[in-house]
Amino acid sequence: MSADIKSNLKNIKEKIREAEKRSGRAEGSVKLMAVSKFHPAEDVIAALNEGQFLFGENRVQEAFEKFPPIFQLYPDADLHMIGSLQSNKVKNAVKVASCIESVDRISLMDEIEKQCEKINKTISILMEVHTGEESKSGFESEAEVEKALQLCADGKYPHIKPCGFMTMAPFTDDKALVRKSFVTLRELSERMKAKFSQFDMPELSMGMSGDFEIAIEEGSTLVRVGTAIFGERNYSK
Ligand SMILES: *Cc1c(COP(=O)(O)O)cnc(C)c1O
Predict the structure, then answer these.
(1) Ligand 1: which residue has its CA nearest to atom 13?
(2) What's the pLDDT tens digit per position in 149-184?
(3) Fewer CB atoms < 10 Å away: N or C end of the chain?
């Protein structure tokens, strides 16, 4: 098992480097997140032993059980939450994660602020934006994203640090549609960065196992790769 993780990581990193080169991006400008949802702690540790420190999880309960013992052993391990988040799960999410990438509504930001204030923690967030017809998650409109950032600018969320944007491309074999979704996010991020220059929002989290090379060509700074590192997920567990 861990032998596969080792060679898969090596393989993906090579592909990331090639895509960076091909698109004129600086080497090392794209970070790799290993999405470990539905995979056991042993697999996370196998990846850590290969120098992979950034992980992503979808479900708060799973992350909350899996990661604290890992942080004991590997204090440099870093976890982002990437799945749609119910407000009643925020309390535990902000305890285990350094960043919540799936912020898709203002009411969720209210709850994140409330829970972070309680534990005196400042958390990074990415605003997830809906960019493709078939995907469901994310802020529905640029106006809503702008409203959320304006609230940050007004000082409503002192424990929240907006760091950029995230999207999921539509699940389709149509590469042009996938690319269009990434372009949409990049263009939105350029407009928001110009409008809210007081925030440092460099991150464009886009690209998964099937489409990360296209995402890099379109400006991704963070690719979220699960299956291509850890293998197929067993959802029946
Ligand atoms: C599961 C998941 C991924 C990883 O998907 P793979 O296709 O397994 O690489 C990336 N981003 C999000 C938001 C996910 O839920």
Answers:
(1) 82
(2) 999 999 999 999 999 999 999 989 999 999 999 999
(3) C
CB within 6 Å of ligand 1 — which residues? 35, 37, 58, 82-83, 168, 208-210, 224-228
- DSSP for 31-63 reads EEEEE-TTS-HHHHHHHHTTT--EEEES-HHHH
Question: What spacing in Å lies between the alpha carbon of 64 and ligand 1's midpoint?
Answer: 18
What pLDDT is attached to residue 173? 92
Q: Which of 65, 68, 86, 66 is nearest to 230 (CA)?
A: 66
- Separation between Cα atoms, residue 4 and residue 8, nearest integer Å: 6
- Looking at the DSSP bridge assignments, the partners of residue 205 are 166, 222
Six token digits for residue 97: 């994660």
Tell me which residue of 204, 201, 200 sits closest to 223, measured CA to CA.
204
Which one-letter amino acid corresponds to residue 22? R
Distance 155 CA to ligand 1 centre (A): 32
| Cβ proximity of 17 and 60 under 8 Å | no
Give the pTM: 0.97
